Each structure stands twice: as C-alpha cells, then as structure tokens.
Amino acid sequence: MRSYLTGRSQFVEIDHVDAKSPNQKSFSSSCKEIKYGVPQGSVLGPLLFLMFINDLPKAVHEAKVVLFADDTNILIIDKNLKSLNDKTIVSMHQLENWFAVNHLIINIEKTKALFFQGRGPRQIDKPELYLNNKKITYTANLKFLGIYITENLSWSSHIHHLVQKLNKTIYLIKSLRDLVSLPILRSVYFAKFESLLRYGIIFWGCGQKGIQTVFKIQKKCLRLIKRVNNRISCREFFGEFKILTLTSLYIFETLCFLRKNRIYNISYSDVHGYNTVHKQNLYVQPCNTSRCKRSVINMGIRLYNNLPSQIRSIQEFKVFKCQLKDYLLCKAFYSLQEYFYKN
C-alpha cells in the first residue's frame, strides 16, 4: 500500500490549436509530488478513497451520514428547533475533528445546506453552520444524485429540469425519424426518453403539479414516432409500441421497488382478527398529511392492494415483473385515479 501511494508525481498537459495554424501544440506544467490523496485515473483509486472515508459515519453521532461515491450528505433531524441547533453544533465539531485527523480540507464553496420545512410562509431562524470558521450557506434547492430537491419537498424544480431534457430528446427523435427505421427509433425512445422518465420516478411520479406537462410531452413523442397529428389519440400507440404510459411507468417502478426489497409485508390480518374481504391486503398506515399519503411506501401499498389477485399471488420476482408489465401495457393508465377507480 505504501509503495502504491508514495513517491508519485503528476503534471497538467493542455492541448492547444492555434487559429492561424492547423498544428496542435501541447503545453505541460512542471511535475509536482502527490503528498495526499490517491492517484487520479487509476483502477484502485476509487476503492482506496472509499476505504479512506468509510469510517466517517462513525465519527458523527448526532446525525445520519449518507455516502455515495465521493458525494457525502449529513442529515440532522429533530422536531424541536433548539435541539436541532444543538445537534448541528455538535455534528459540525465532530466533522471538523474528523477532517483534521484525516488531513482533509472541505471545499466550502461546493458545500450547501438545505433546511427542510413544510409548505407555507414561515419565518424560522435556521441554525448557523460553520466548518473551520467558514460559514456554510443555505440554498432553497439542490441537485442530489441527479434529482432536484427543494426545502419544502416539492418536485416542481425537478420536473422543470426534466421537461427541458425531454424537449431536447423530442428534437433528437424528430431529427432521426426520417433517417432510421421504426425499431431503431423505438430503441432511441427507450435509451434517451424513457430513461429520463424512469430516474427517481418513484419519488416524483405521484406529484400533483407538472405531471400532466410531462405526460403531454410523452404523448407528443409517440405521435412523432407514429407520424400522426396532435388531434389523434395515442392511447392505442402505447400498446402497439409496448411503451408504458407515465402513470403505468410510475406504478411499475414503485411496485417493483416494493416487491423486490420486501420493505413492508404487514397485512390487515396481522393487525386485527376480523374476517374481512380485504384481510389479505397490505395494511395502509393512517396518514394526516398529503406528503405522507404520497410517500413511496404508502403509495406503494395502495398500488399493490389494487392489483389483480392473480398478479399479487406470484411469488417469483421475475415472473411478477413480467406479468405486471403486461398488465400495465394492456391497460395503459392515463392517471392514478383511473388505476384506482376503473381498475
């Protein structure tokens, strides 16, 4: 390990093309010894970095540390504002100590804080955050692993950015439809369009605002592929191309997530001994807020209970996944209301 990490040096090389001359020139800096960290671009580098920061969660006792590759997030929770402030101060000190012991310097400019709170105009004195005497600024929203999160847990910002990406893909498909065959165009849809829809849909897919905008763009994309005008209904096109509607895609991803991870399996028969018609359904915990009702677990249970019994009874996950997809392709649900009340 010592021989791999020590005695290394690095330099920076920049390629430059002069406008007056077609020849490319390279400019290199002088070599500098690498005193800290792991070699960039190496195979072992990412693994060694993960081993290096793997003990960070144990160093912070008043908060939950979420690590994903080189992205680190600190989650501090408390119902009382004073207790939250105390936990924040302690956690910041523990972080400072860990960084000092491990000879790491945090980039304050890339470090942001988000204060989660309910919707509505409320003036709350947020805890001041300092690391090494440098203040961490608060932001109203940020991008977390490709998903835009706001302080009031609204998905409007994420949907706004998603719509921009989808419109760019629409332009791509429109440019390609005269150049490639229909099967290739369908493959482009799955690779470039549906991949954007799938990402994080279990979180934002049941939102109230903006969902119809995304769905309209999806229908516009299908009409482009089919070469029909906007007045033609495209419900039958979803089945023809074997493409899930936005609502069906949300149902599919949520139910697969719930079933694969076996997160919740409490039925009504486990809660009470009454011999009711719905005793084999999963128990839906009471919720007082719309945010709780639209959570992944709560919505997943309601979606699961509304499935036909022959699909719910399937034990093998792969078979369940295939049968569920065939069912959703056949129904082509346009909304959750249609799934719950017309299913």
Q: Mind sketching the topology for me?
A:
Layout: H1 2-5, E1 9-10, E2 13-17, E3 24-28, E4 32-33, H2 45-53, H3 56-59, E5 64-68, E6 71-75, H4 81-101, E7 112-113, E8 130-131, E9 134-135, E10 137-138, E11 141-144, E12 147-150, H5 156-176, H6 182-198, H7 201-204, H8 211-226, H9 235-240, H10 246-261, H11 268-271, H12 290-293, H13 296-305, H14 309-312, H15 317-331, H16 336-341
Parallel strand pairs: 7-10
Antiparallel strand pairs: 1-4, 2-3, 5-6, 8-9, 11-12
Account of the 3D structure:
- The chain has helices at residues 2-5, 45-53, 56-59, 81-101, 156-176, 182-198, 201-204, 211-226, 235-240, 246-261, 268-271, 290-293, 296-305, 309-312, 317-331, 336-341; strands at residues 9-10, 13-17, 24-28, 32-33, 64-68, 71-75, 112-113, 130-131, 134-135, 137-138, 141-144, 147-150.
- It is globular.
- Helix 5 runs antiparallel to helix 6 and helix 5 packs parallel to helix 8 (211-226).
- The chain folds into four domains: 1-33, no CATH class; 44-141, no CATH class; 142-241, no CATH class; 244-342, no CATH class.
- It has 343 residues and is mostly helical.
- The model has no long low-confidence stretch (mean pLDDT 86).
- It contains 16 helices and twelve strands.
- A hairpin with a 2-residue loop joins strand 11 and strand 12 (147-150).
- The N and C termini lie far apart (61 Å).
- Helix content is 47%, strand content 12%.
- The chain has a two-stranded antiparallel ribbon. It has a two-stranded antiparallel ribbon with strand order 2-3.
